[in-house]
Amino acid sequence: MKLYDLDLSGNCYKVRLFAALTGTELELIPVDLAAGEHYTPTFAALNPFQEVPVLVDGKTALRDSQAVLVYLAGQLQDRAWWPEDPTSQAEIVQWLCIASSEIRDGPNAARLIRKFGYDLAIERALLVTQRLLPLLDRHLTSFEWFALGRPTIADCALFPYLALAHEGGIDVTPFPALTGWLDRVRALPKFTPMPGIRG
Ligand SMILES: N[C@@H](CCC(=O)N[C@@H](CS)C(=O)NCC(=O)O)C(=O)O
Fold first, then answer.
1. Which atom of ligand 1 is nearest to the CA of 10?
2. How far apart are the CA of 83 and the centre of ligand 1, in A?
3. Which of 52, 104, 167 to mutate to test the pocket of ligand 1 (most atoms within 8 A of CB)?
4. Which of 52, 75, 91, 154 has CA 20 to 30 A from 101's CA?
5. Closest CA to ligand 1's atom 14
6. Ligand 1 contacts CB of residue 33 (under 6 A)
7. Given the CA of residue 108, which atom of ligand 1 is nearest to it?
8. 153-163 and 176-186 are packed helices; what angle lies between their axes, rounded to 10 degrees?
9. What is the pLDDT of residues 135-193, one digit of tens each?
């Protein structure tokens, strides 16, 4: 399977992290966003939304990191990361949706603005983050992992932009349950870091 990838992308890292933790083999195809490689017709044929990551498995081309996590985890023999029953799946999807909404609009947006100079509203990014972090911290005060009492794809989807929050000028240290969970993810066997995230 091929992953169209960017090393500095937290969305791509969600997939690289899951692959490392589960021993899933991926061929990484770097896409140079700075050079506009994602605007080429060849890439647009894979993902009309012109974003990474994209996973290609034979004739299947999938965009969106959450969708890719579901696809990869659903292929494993060990279904602990994405079980088959609807109740467990729904519990995980609740958190995948937070990853693609509040995390994107909060800590991810703050990093895009402050590290990469994107023209987005910092006030809104900080407001979303300010509301989000206490909610996550409260959840993690009662639970060791986001869903099902064990590591799942929910943790892979939420980890990158929370661990990269400092690059958006966001301090997570006032949230002890959240920082404890970040450390637990880092301590998972076969954990892999990315630039900006210590191992
Ligand atoms: N919902 C998508 C979002 C993907 C996304 O935003 N990718 C960024 C890199 S992290 C991108 O390709 N941006 C293109 C651009 O900035 O022009 C996902 O979760 O994979």
1. 10
2. 27
3. 52
4. 75
5. 51
6. yes
7. 10
8. 110
9. 999 999 999 999 999 999 999 999 999 999 999 999 999 999 999 999 999 999 999 99
- Residues 135 and 198: their CA atoms lie apart, in Å, by 24
**pLDDT tens-place string over residues 74-100:** 999 999 999 999 999 999 999 999 999
Residue 198: pLDDT band with limits 50, 70, 90? confident
Distance 137 CA to ligand 1 centre (A): 26
Region(s) of the chain under CATH 1.20.1050.10? 83-186
Name the CATH code of domain 83-186 (choices 3.40.50.720, 1.20.1050.10, 3.40.50.150, 3.60.9.10).
Answer: 1.20.1050.10
In whole angstroms, what is the distance from residue 98 CA to residue 158 CA? 8
- Determine the CATH number of domain 2-75: 3.40.30.10
Choose the residue to mutate in 11, 96, 104 for probing ligand 1, maximizing ligand atoms within 8 Å of C-beta.
11
